[in-house]
Inverse folding.
């Protein structure tokens, strides 16, 4: 079968690889669409970072992941084979994939987070398409049945490929403590910032303000439902915050990972408010904890998602799929994934929200 594999920075290749075996507790998936994530671009440019670093050794003894790595973790697919011990799934069923691999996948005794249902921060956490032999940029992949997320009737495979990044946003909102009727500000209008904006409004936010320097992404934020957008190069973010929200936002979501946006997020929330970090940082940031102490502001962060977050996203897609589909800026074939996908994002990042790689499409 064909698969896109990472060898080193700027070296992705479409290879012929053997079809994986399907175990008793696994299912074989025919991949339909896979989104290109910001983390995929990061690895493409300067990796391996979170991908395996040594092509001769497994990255961990639970997954056996090693280079060359099949990438891709924003997946929609159809089941084509079901292991003999799998219950509740059948051939022909359409699914998305919860890419987080935890102790349930490993057959390991559950760690403390897994015992508490927080599988996204398992002591042995890894991810399909990142540090596992299986990844989405392939004609087929085999996953544990616990990773499956059923796609509701009426939701296309193309739209369902957005479930994973939307689940990241849904998890961030849930973990932030956001409540209906509150005000929020989102720093960054990339794929996750746009998803945050869309889901915050869907959850009943009174006002969502988005700060972003790229004009094309400000338009994407407006399309996602932002009540007000601001370019910090042209307007003072805090002035706009105070104009719209009085003493400040209830929650600020930092989706850029820059010192300037982090500082602005700290300043933009009101006394007792919450700053929630969604970004993966290129380098450490500085923090004056007196700002938190004096205002009893809370600094929180989140990692990936759980089944609860996918459930919420699928409910949203069932009713608002057409609103989400406009986040897809391009669909490219696997054979052109590097040139028309990865390189296109690198060279024209602000023009795109989400590029999908099509494997078998709406089969």
């Amino acid at each position: 079968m064909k698969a896109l594999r990472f060898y080193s920075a700027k070296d992705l290749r479409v290879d012929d690889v053997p079809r994986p075996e399907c175990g008793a507790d696994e299912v074989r998936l025919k991949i339909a669409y896979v989104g290109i994530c910001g983390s995929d671009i990061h690895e493409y440019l300067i990796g391996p970072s979170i991908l395996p670093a040594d092509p001769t050794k497994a990255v961990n003894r639970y997954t056996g992941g090693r280079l060359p790595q099949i990438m891709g973790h924003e997946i929609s697919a159809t089941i084509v084979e079901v292991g003999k011990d799998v219950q509740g799934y059948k051939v022909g069923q359409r699914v998305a994939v919860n890419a987080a691999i935890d102790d349930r996948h490993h057959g390991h005794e559950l760690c403390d987070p897994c015992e508490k249902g927080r599988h996204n921060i398992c002591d042995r956490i890894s991810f399909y398409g990142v540090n596992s032999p299986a990844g989405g940029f392939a004609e087929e992949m085999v996953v544990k049945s616990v990773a499956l997320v059923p796609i509701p009737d009426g939701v296309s495979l193309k739209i369902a490929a957005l479930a994973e990044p939307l689940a990241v946003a849904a998890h961030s909102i849930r973990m932030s403590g956001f409540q209906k009727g509150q005000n929020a500000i989102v720093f960054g209008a990339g794929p996750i910032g746009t998803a945050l904006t869309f889901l915050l409004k869907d959850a009943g936010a009174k006002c969502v303000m988005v700060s972003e320097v790229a004009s094309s992404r400000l338009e994407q934020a407006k399309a996602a439902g932002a009540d007000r957008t601001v370019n910090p190069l042209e307007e003072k973010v805090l002035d706009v915050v105070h104009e719209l929200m009085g003493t400040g936002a209830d929650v600020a979501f930092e989706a850029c990972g820059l010192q300037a946006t982090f500082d602005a997020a700290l300043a933009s929330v009101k006394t007792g408010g919450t700053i929630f970090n969604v970004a993966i940082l290129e380098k450490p940031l500085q923090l004056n904890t007196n700002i938190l102490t004096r205002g009893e502001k809370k600094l929180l962060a989140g990692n990936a998602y759980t089944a609860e977050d996918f459930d919420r996203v699928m409910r949203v897609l069932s009713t608002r799929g057409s609103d989400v589909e406009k986040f897809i800026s391009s669909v490219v074939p696997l054979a052109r994934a590097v040139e028309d996908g990865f390189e296109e994002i690198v060279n024209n990042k602000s023009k795109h929200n989400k590029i999908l790689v099509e494997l078998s499409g709406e089969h």
In short: The domain at 2-162+327-358 is CATH 3.90.180.10 (Quinone Oxidoreductase; Chain A, domain 1). The chain has a mean pLDDT of 96.
